[in-house]
Design a protein that fits this description.
Elements lengths: L1 H28 L10 H34 L13 H14 L22 H6 L3 H8 L7 E4 L7 H14 L4 E7 L18 H10 L3 E8 L8 H12 L7 E5 L11 H5 L4 H8 L4 E5 L15 E5 L6 E3 H10 L5 E5 L1 E3 L11 E3 L4 E3 L6 H7 L2 E3 L4 E6 L18 H9 L3 E7 L4 H10 L5 E5 L20 E4 L22 H34 L13 H14 L21 H6 L3 H8 L7 E4 L9 H11 L5 E5 L17 H10 L3 E8 L8 H12 L7 E6 L5 E3 L12 H8 L4 E5 L1 E3 L11 E5 L3 E3 H10 L5 E4 L2 E3 L11 E3 L4 E4 L4 H8 L2 E3 L4 E6 L16 H10 L2 E7 L4 H8 L7 E5 L20 E7 L7 H10 L4 E7 L24 E5 L12
Parallel strand pairs: 1-2, 2-3, 3-4, 4-5, 5-6, 6-8, 7-9, 8-11, 10-12, 11-13, 13-14, 14-15, 15-16, 17-18, 18-19, 19-20, 20-22, 21-23, 22-24, 24-26, 25-27, 26-29, 28-30, 29-31, 31-32, 32-33, 33-34, 34-35, 35-36
Helix pairs in contact: 1-15, 2-15, 7-8, 12-13, 20-21, 24-25
Length: 1001
């Protein structure tokens, strides 16, 4: 068989070499970036070959899989297939696998982006579904089923209840690890009477039945124990029913108490006699507490091997004497975490008798820092075991970019601790300067593994280097150091003995087949390129397009994505860059594309500037490159602070001459200026200087768009009167500049209401401006009759009396209207001023019910004005925000018979009870459901009903979490079977993408 394999390999290798050579010659005959006249017979042959080469690729993959399996079946070098292991060995491997990863409901995943944990630990189920043999071994291995996750508010769901019972049955008499997570959002109340619905007694009875079998118990709840919610009653059952000597681990993570909670026997012990609880706690060796702390004199703190204390608030503290007593009473501690304040400490330089903790392996100082760190460390004397130590930046009042050795107030205690410890793993959190890290490493020469989390290091000072001999084996950045256990789970296998020669041949063939796969992949790419060159079916390769057409495509691509600094991404999980990257990506594809892209000035006209980054390597050069490649094209300039550094307040940064000089050079070419910051401009600060520079150098008639977004501080009018010199420019200069503005978007900062900036606008957006007199608003609308987009977030003051007839301002070109009043009553005062034309209108309406709640909706205070507005407008797209129930949605739809597209953003619709106010023939073309991610959102059953009732043809979902939207109340991360068949077209937009309809909300 080996000889036959050798012959086949030689023939295949020779054939592949010849095949690759022929493909390469064909490719040379028809180079890219040309439009060759390929003969028809060649075109048809290329089409056939394109299909054949795909099958070759599939065959090679099958061969690779076959040899991989044969390799797994060999006994070379003493290896064995996992399928040949005895049941007891396989069961032991299963137990290791099940215990490797953390519980899916644990806090380990709290900050894991995009992770949606299942409600149950599924490893055991997965292993039992591999094959019949594995299933038999898994089901008969009781310890695999001993970890049970309970979610009480979903316990009535049939599948979860049955699964829990299955786990219990398979666990037998094995001691249990119970993890209880109460993620409900508030107590439930009867919708009619308003009375609180009592807790489910069935769940408490079930919990009482398994409590005697518990080895460990973990409770995580959204509530404090003071309100006697579910957690209180569960602990009461636990303390009453658990068996002393059986319970070994306790973990409590409850919500912070904001009331006048004081420790008392009743509040701590849930009404259970103290002697009963103390007897139960004597066997506990692992204790993790957050926001719930039994009295420090309890037996619970004796004989521990792990102690974790965390929390915040008045109760989250411990006196130094109590902490010392606890450590002395648990001399075998392996893990110690103290994450809150130590009070009533003796003077820092007072002599102390250190506590010997010879088994200590992990010390976590939590978020205590500065002098508190020294108070803790001076008491601890670890043994010779390798120690992992977590330390938060210990510099007093440390600020980014600053370093002062004198601010390390606990230096002597930290140095002494490292001197008497064998710290081999150091977890450094929140360090602000490279020199700080070097200082700490210099104290700990035994460190081999370093983890840095939240570390700021803009530059490395080589003069301040660690002492000679300080080296590291591993470096982790921004993450916990975890012990990783990996194993191979290989299906199948055979007990046949394979000769070493044949096993060697299989290993050799496996590598050869991998090279075949690479050759076939290259050949397929060549044939694919030849296929694209052909003119079959009247298609043309993008490489054959004329330069001007390709440039037009590039411009279209660059305009598809919004600016990464814009508010479009506010609610997405998109990790945005600081620069528009599309032109750079297009210019890096190939030399031809690079030439086209670099010679297309429009591609480079959008320039994002981040002042606090411009001095970093590459930033200034990149901005200069964009300006150079844009030629004489008018520029779109966007100035904003670094998104990842919210504490950097652009509005408060000092002036930067280099940056202002750069702005002055490009300002005459500005077509649009967008500026966002955390504070309005103030004299002497960067924002103020930027505006002054831009307005002084911009050319009237070229600057047509202004966008100011200052999201903090009071509303700040620009040049409200003649004495205001905010920009140090003559009023005439500013007015001549603003007269040509066509698009004006402002937030917390605006030109004076009498300014020419409000004349002749096509787009006006006023956000966060506080109040505006009705007469001023009317004057602005009249001075811009061609408005296409109008967005108002304001309060109308000095209003005309309600009984006075008002003639609305005609805005015949209006296409988008957003009215977001500060109060429900203001909606009517805005709408009565506007008379749209006959054009289709997109209208955004925030819940107009006064004091609206999900239980008892109040009055629709602007009902008359809203109905009259809908009567004189042709609203075809309705954007409904934060409506509380379907009845409200239906009521508004009845006013808008012309609507074809409905958007539900952050709305609640648990169930649909159709009224009789909508005509039977009322239909919609499209439905958008946005930001539906909690238990009060639009349920899937409601969507199904609306799609069928309104005969919707297209459904779009964005930020829609099926776990929380009524799929049997299970909360499982499942997708409904009819998701893509519910209507003709379904779009599921990822959380990372921007709001799909941001343009007209």
């Amino acid at each position: 068989m080996t000889d036959e394999l050798e012959t086949a390999t030689t023939l295949l290798s020779s054939a592949l070499d010849r095949y690759s050579e022929v493909c390469s010659r064909l490719k040379d005959c028809y180079p890219p970036n040309t439009l060759p006249n390929i003969p028809p017979e060649y075109t048809s042959r290329v089409l056939r070959e394109f299909a054949l080469v795909t099958t070759y690729e599939t065959e090679i993959r099958h061969l690779k899989a076959l040899f991989g399996r044969l390799n797994n079946s060999t006994e070379l070098s003493g290896t064995r297939s996992i399928g040949s292991f005895p049941p007891e060995v396989l069961a032991h491997i299963f137990k290791i696998v099940c215990s490797t990863g953390p519980c899916p409901q644990s806090a380990t995943y709290a900050y894991t982006t995009g992770y949606k944990p299942p409600l149950f630990n599924t490893d055991s189920i997965t292993l039992s579904h591999v094959c019949s043999r594995w299933r038999q071994i898994a089901i008969n291995t009781a310890t695999m089923w001993s970890h049970i996750d309970l979610v009480p508010h979903q316990f009535q769901v049939t599948t979860l209840s049955e699964r829990t019972n299955t786990y219990l049955a398979r666990a037998g008499r094995t001691l249990l690890d119970i993890h209880l997570v109460d993620r409900s959002h508030g107590a439930k109340y009867d919708a009619i009477t308003g009375t609180r619905i009592p807790l489910d007694s069935g769940f408490l009875e079930f919990f009482a039945s398994i409590a005697p079998q518990m080895r460990s118990f973990e409770l995580r709840t959204n509530y404090s124990l003071i309100d006697k919610h579910l957690g209180y009653h569960v602990l009461s059952v636990c303390f009453a029913k658990c068996i002393p000597g059986t319970l070994q681990q306790l973990s409590f993570d409850v919500a912070k108490d904001y009331g006048d909670f004081r420790r008392s026997p009743e509040s701590e012990l849930m009404g259970i006699p103290e002697e009963t609880v103390e007897r139960l706690w004597r066997s506990v060796t692992v204790l993790r507490l957050k926001q719930f702390y039994p009295k420090w004199t309890s037996q619970l703190y004796h004989g521990l091997v792990e102690l974790c204390l965390a929390g915040q608030g008045l109760d989250a503290s411990i006196s130094e004497a109590r902490l010392v007593a606890i450590m002395k009473s648990s001399p075998r501690l392996r893990v110690l975490k103290i994450g809150f304040e130590i009070t009533h400490a003796i003077p820092i330089h007072s002599p102390v008798e250190q506590i010997s903790l010879i088994d200590l392996e992990h010390l976590d100082s939590g978020w205590i820092r500065e002098q508190q760190l020294g108070i803790l460390l001076r008491w601890i004397a670890p043994g010779t075991k390798p120690l992992s130590f977590k330390i938060v930046n210990p510099w007093l009042g440390a600020q980014e970019g600053q370093y002062n050795p004198m601010h390390f107030t606990s230096r002597s205690e930290v140095e002494s601790f490292f001197a008497r410890s064998n710290v081999t793993r150091l977890y450094a959190v929140g360090f602000d300067h490279y020199n700080q890290l070097v200082d700490v490493l210099s104290m700990a020469p035994s460190v081999r593994v370093l983890v840095v989390d939240g570390f700021t290091c803009n530059q490395v000072n080589e003069e301040h280097a660690p002492p000679p001999g300080v080296t590291l084996d591993e470096l982790y950045v921004n993450g916990w150091l975890k012990d990783i256990v990996s194993g191979s789970l290989l299906y199948g296998g055979s007990n046949n003995v394979i000769s070493p020669e044949f096993a060697n041949r299989i290993i050799q063939e496996l590598s050869i087949v991998a090279s075949y796969e690479s050759e076939i992949r290259e050949s397929r790419a060549t044939v694919s390129q030849l296929h694209n060159l052909g003119e079959s079916r009247n298609t043309r390769s993008i490489f054959s397009l004329p330069t001007e057409v390709l440039a037009r495509i590039f411009r279209t691509v660059c305009n598809i994505h919004p600016c990464p600094q814009s508010g479009v991404y506010t609610y997405s999980t998109y990790s945005k860059p600081l620069f528009v990257l599309d032109p750079i990506i297009l210019s890096h594809v190939c030399s031809h594309w690079r030439e086209v892209a670099t010679n297309s000035p429009d591609l480079w006209s959008h320039i994002d500037l981040v002042p606090d980054q411009l001095r970093l390597p590459g930033w200034s050069e990149r901005a200069t490159t964009y300006v150079a490649r844009s030629g004489q094209t008018l520029l779109d300039i966007h100035i904003s602070p670094t998104p990842e550094k919210k504490e950097v307040q652009l509005g408060s940064l000092g002036t930067d001459p280099d940056f202002l000089q750069f702005l002055a050079r490009i300002a005459p070419r500005m077509r649009s200026l967008t500026m966002s910051a955390n504070h309005p401009p103030a004299p002497g600060m960067l924002c103020h200087s930027v505006l002054s520079t831009c307005f002084a150098n911009c050319v009237p008639g070229r600057l047509v768009s202004l966008d100011f977004d200052f999201d903090r501080g009071h509303v700040h009018p620009l040049l409200e009167d003649e004495t205001n010199t905010d920009t140090s420019l003559p009023r005439e200069k500013l007015e001549s500049l603003w007269y040509h503005i066509k698009s004006l978007r402002v937030d917390h900062f605006h030109p004076a209401w009498t300014s020419k900036a409000y004349h002749g606008l096509l787009e006006l957006e006023l956000n966060g401006i506080g109040s505006i007199p009705e007469s001023v608003l009317v004057a602005i609308l009249k001075s811009s009759p061609g408005l296409r987009v109008l967005k108002l977030q304001c309060q109308v003051t000095d209003r005309t009396p309600d009984d006075t007839r008002i003639t609305p301002v005609p805005l015949v070109d209006l296409e988008q209207l957003t009215a977001t009043p500060f109060e429900e009553l203001d909606l009517g005062y805005i709408l009565r001023l506007i008379a749209p034309g006959a054009k289709p209108l997109g209208f955004t309406l925030t819940n107009p019910w006064l004091g609206s709640t999900t239980v008892r909706p109040r009055r629709f205070t602007s009902k008359v004005e809203t109905r009259n507005f809908f009567f004189r407008a042709k609203v075809t797209r309705l954007y409904a925000k934060t409506f509380d129930n379907y009845k409200q949605i239906e009521y508004v739809l009845a006013m808008v018979p012309s609507v074809r597209v409905l958007v539900l953003d952050g709305c609640r619709c648990r169930q649909v009870r159709e009224g009789s106010i909508l005509p039977v023939d009322f239909t919609l073309d499209e439905l958008y459901v946005l930001r539906s991610t909690d238990y009060g959102a639009v349920t899937w059953s409601s969507i199904e009903w609306m799609v069928e009732r309104f005969r919707i043809r297209e459904l779009t979902l964005w930020w829609y979490d099926h776990r929380y939207n009524g799929l049997g109340e299970s909360g499982a991360p499942v997708v409904p079977n009819n998701l893509h068949t519910i209507c003709p077209k379904v779009n599921v937009i990822s959380d990372e993408s921007p709001n799909p309809i941001k343009d007209w909300q």
